[in-house]
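request received
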Amino acid sequence: MLKKVAIFGVGLIGGSFALALKRARAVQQVVGVGRTAATLERAREIGIVDAISTSVQEALQDTDLVLIAAPVAQTETILATIKPHLQAGTVITDAGSTKTDVVAAARKALGDKIGQFIPGHPIAGRESNGPDAAIADLYIGKKVVLAPLPENASADVERVAQAWQQCGALIHRLSPEEHDRVFAAVSHLPHLLAYALVDDVANKPHADLLFQYAASGFRDFTRIAGSSPEMWRDISLANQAALLQELDAYIAQLTKLRANLVAADGNALQQMFAHAQQARQSWIRTIEAAEKQNRNGGD
Amino acid sequence: MLKKVAIFGVGLIGGSFALALKRARAVQQVVGVGRTAATLERAREIGIVDAISTSVQEALQDTDLVLIAAPVAQTETILATIKPHLQAGTVITDAGSTKTDVVAAARKALGDKIGQFIPGHPIAGRESNGPDAAIADLYIGKKVVLAPLPENASADVERVAQAWQQCGALIHRLSPEEHDRVFAAVSHLPHLLAYALVDDVANKPHADLLFQYAASGFRDFTRIAGSSPEMWRDISLANQAALLQELDAYIAQLTKLRANLVAADGNALQQMFAHAQQARQSWIRTIEAAEKQNRNGGD
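response:
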């Protein structure tokens, strides 16, 4: 059982972590830290945190585990304010969507205490944000990627892994570089593509007519274009290199598709569509099998 | 009340049209016509059609309305088999996703009887296909675009419009060219983009690792890549010109996005993302308001 957990950022991600730990009776006390007093107050009101603190020193006192669940661009500043108060027995983890930049920021901010920082990324979310969106179920059956550093003690990595497992999550491990390459392909690029399409349609002179006929296919395709522009600006910049590589591969793919369309090469088009359809179906079957196993094995 | 309706293709689209007309008591008899005996038998078994016919002559006898709900590439062949048996009192409509090519095919097949053909496109669908996927509710509150020709008598257009309205649909009108430009942007291009992304990911050497971390954002974005490859090959070829124009605009958009990413221009990125997010939110609000109005006004 964790005695004390401090959470920097008590929104959807940090708040759900707190609620899940509490429900699992895996923590005695959760302290919330953040920039916005109203958000912290709300988090206390609805039982996400037991106490709130505007003093980092106080929040860090005898704390087993710190979770940083603030926008990625703030990670370095938060870690720098933590460092002077960081006790030997405390481990820190984060929930950022990119890892290479977070590791660089952590090395800069923490210096010789870098061993106490275990980079992490829970793969879970909802459409809404803030403390009121937090739910104890958010991580059940979801993946949490840990990207341990050579300096991390395995017992510390284990402490972070166990906390997430007690939230119902499944632990995966990738290096920070692997993590960023993988998420550039399956998450960051699709977000950019969805934003680009909606922006493209909205900029056309007959945009109103177009939106009038957009239906459920368009709605699903562009759902991720409803995400926070600030967050995705930060992710794009933080994962610039891997994202550029994926974007270039995709533009090359569209150029090939365009050539097939110009040539009216029905076979080549159908082959690409069929390959994509099969790959997606096989992926969906894998997900559904895993979900079924989680349901049977869990709870 | 329609005395007799003949449906060529009794799958999801044709079958749902039949079920909806029957529930509204808007038709006395529905006859199914098609290439596959087993599909027709199934449609009769589950009450979609009252009779099945392998003779086009028999199916066309004293028929008020013909719906062609077969793959678009078959439209010309079907209309050519219909022509010799087409009586003066019969109107024909279709459910194809493209209209310019369908009109060209209809002119070729029907010649001086073209006035009896009213091009149409119901904007509705489900993930599954075939007669067993058909439901009487499919068209409730959904748009049906009619693209009437100069040769159509307004009473004939009205007959088609009324049939769809009795299925619960809302009638919109566009010219065949307008229709194809609009759907190239909001439907055909997104389908190609989704297929292209899944094919791109599936072709990478580490595809298995990538799919392992693909989550709900990827799932929604690529949902339309689960659609029929044959159907989307046909649509791509049928709407080649408008689709190329949209694809080129999108590649130009991605090229601009790429330049902003290379320059690490956070403001420009955020501006595009925010504009897209706002446009999407305002579109979703419009849809939700319309759905609410349909619910209050309908049923």
